[in-house]
């Protein structure tokens, strides 16, 4: 049976359409499969496909996706990067075709807090309900972006602009935006659990909200997406406490028989949590014992010292502070010879900046 695609098209007036097509292709080659053509290029990703065709005074865009979310992601990626590379020159266009004129973002969910409890001294679980719970199924991704409205004001949520960009509320209505992992999904109860680290400085906006969250508080959720590991015979999952929710979620969701080595850096023994997994799990906790988060090389030393599985296909996932992530990535590539697709290393936060920006501070390779 042939899969039905949603399709949208646009014509963007530009002084140098061919140059812009090449600029876009050169950028997306790091994130998708790009094929240059005589007129421009094709950009293919798990979300869908974009075709760029340069005319004399316009860049013709065609976006394809298997559903409304996929189509929006393709259109949004093109529009946001056109705005970056061309500025106001690319702001006077709109899309025709499927989903044209719709302002609602298809993967946005308005939810509310229904509970919050302390898991450890530095980890708090917030439970949310509302929206389309089925959309948060693990096959769609493990991470969501929480949109926290300012206290004391009715929330103003983002909408889609005619050109495909996301219009975010500003000024007094500006939202706090942070990326977290869905730790647990309960379809029967219609809830999702999000575990949030309470950072040591006590002033990080996400941490402050988690501490004060009360039943009934509104929160926007965008997603889910990302985080799903490829099929492999063995997995190495490593990170500090900001990665603990995704490490636990992956370990608990992998098929029986897989081998998993998990290395988790936390403040001390009080931060350890049970991971109920059916895989062959070797779990090691790394305690900082008084050292501030982001100031040790515990993860790198543990990865260097451990006995790595021999044979079979392996996959490594690491999430930690920016500088630690750079060191681990360099070692995995240069000394262990692991290809990019086999070793996913992400900077979840950066020492000296807001501690819970999560994927906002992703390292660029």
Structural features, described:
This protein folds into three domains: 6-97, TATA-Binding Protein; 108-225, Translation factors (Elongation Factor Tu (Ef-tu), domain 3); 234-361, Rossmann fold, CATH 3.40.50. Residues 355-365 have low confidence and may be disordered. The protein is built from six helices and 19 strands. By secondary structure, it is an alpha+beta fold. The longest helix has 19 residues, at 68-86. The strands form four sheets. A six-stranded antiparallel β-sheet has the order 2-3-4-5-1-6, covered by helices on one side. β12 and β13 form a beta hairpin.
Layout of helices and strands:
Blueprint: E1 6-13, H1 17-28, E2 33-36, E3 40-44, E4 48-54, E5 58-65, H2 68-86, E6 96-97, E7 108-120, E8 123-129, E9 143-148, E10 159-160, E11 166-167, E12 176-186, E13 191-197, H3 205-212, E14 218-225, E15 234-240, H4 244-253, E16 259-266, E17 280-287, H5 298-305, E18 314-321, H6 322-334, E19 343-349
